[in-house]
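Holo prediction. Input below; ligand is S-adenosyl-L-homocysteine.
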Amino acid sequence: MERKTPLISQEALRQQEEISDYLKLWWQNQGITPVAYVETYGCQQNEADSEQIRGILERCGYGLTDTAEGADLVVINTCAIREHAAQRVFGNVGALVHTKRRHPGQKIFVCGCMMGQPEISARMKNSYAHVDGIFSPHHLWQLPEHLYRVLIRHKKAWAVEDSAGAIAEGLPLVRTNRLKAWVSIMYGCNNFCTYCIVPYVRGRERSRLPEDILAECRELIAQGYRELTLLGQNVNSYGKDLGLGLDFADLLGQIAELEGDFVLRFMTSHPRDASHKLFDVMASHDKIAKQFHLPFQSGNDRILKEMNRHYNRAQYLELIEYGRSLMPEIVFTSDVIVGFPGETEAEFEDTLSLIERVRFDALFTFIYSPRPGTPAAKLPDPTPKEEKNRRFDRLLAVQNGISEEKHRAYVGKSFRALVDGRDGDRLTARTDGGRLVRFEGDDSLMGQFVELTVTDSTTWSLVGQISGDGAGRRD
Ligand code: SAH
Ligand code: SF4
Ligand code: F3S
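Structure of the complex:
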């Protein structure tokens, strides 16, 4: 099979680099070191995109700042997943009128998934005169060109044409964390769940080549990164477009075999393509965290069908059981939507009973939000908002009870955990299962794997202390 995904040519990428170098010089010649502020909404994919945006901006001569106030450039990287996220963006972009007034040279760019929605980007273009440029995720790699247009040619930059998507390898990156790195392994989504906007704004599924991913992982490990998280909207369909006979489980296994002391995570998995083979690979590699984020969305078969999810409740539960049969300690987390159009009380009860059956460690719960242009947005939705809120609260109460019990059951047990930060007078660490543990310790432990015994728990986190000699290394 031929590879379907177009790569952005080296030539085209080089042109962008040349523009970056030109802009850097242009700033230098004015004796200015400009600063940029990048604000990110949405998921890890957007976080990863913002790391590329920062990388490109640095190459264009910008330093980075953590406030829009006084910044020479503001980039707002938006999320379109729910109405609420979109409203916040409009509010915050609107408020930038004032920061720009205080710093007239300021340029404002809006990018990300919302800019992949034609009506939304048109509204941004037509009603927000202080915005200098907008670009959708497909046009991120051309950021130097957009900047050139705005800074040098004094024009507005609009780059929102739709596309199935391509891959730009080797863009510069400024990573925000020095221990934990995102590694995008694929982009886009082909699933078209009926409620979801992502396939419309991020284009078709396209996988990076395994050698590019492995090279990036190797480099990250050599630089001292201790946690790698492989990213994709549906990592389980990795490789389908490459035609190399290599699937996600194979890729995961290959990365887990790289030398070094690191923990490997991945997200997100779609239950339709989550294979037994994937669980087998997880079980046979110590370096792969025993954590699985497996969104189920609904516990009712009719709703799952309406959502176009291509699995049913029984198949979902079978996957969970298979995973637990191989790895009794595996931590499952999930996403769920309450109030999908036409969801009845009885269908909602199926969702409740599924979470009681599976007992996830943590659950991300969302009230259905109609996204214009998606099939579900056209469905009749007779359930009043108050009723949906009531279901949501019920679900949350049940899950909070489960999370609390699960966390309490960890008390007395020991876990290997990566020390990743400080919270007041305590250090914080993440167990392989992704649970947060606070404990007393010295800053020299930062970035180390330690063995922690859990001494206390809350709904959301654990308290622990270093156990034994504290060494959490495997080798
Ligand atoms: N690709 C991932 C995550 C996509 S977005 C996956 O397939 O699991 C993250 C979560 O947002 C989804 O899992 C879903 O629970 C939620 N979500 C997506 N669209 C939504 C909508 N229109 N309304 C409410 N929640 C939504
Ligand atoms: Fe959206 Fe479904 Fe794709 Fe996830 S798998 S991004 S929910 S369409
Ligand atoms: Fe939002 Fe786009 Fe992610 S819509 S959830 S930022 S892929």
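DSSP finds 13 helices and 19 strands in the chain. That is the main takeaway for now.
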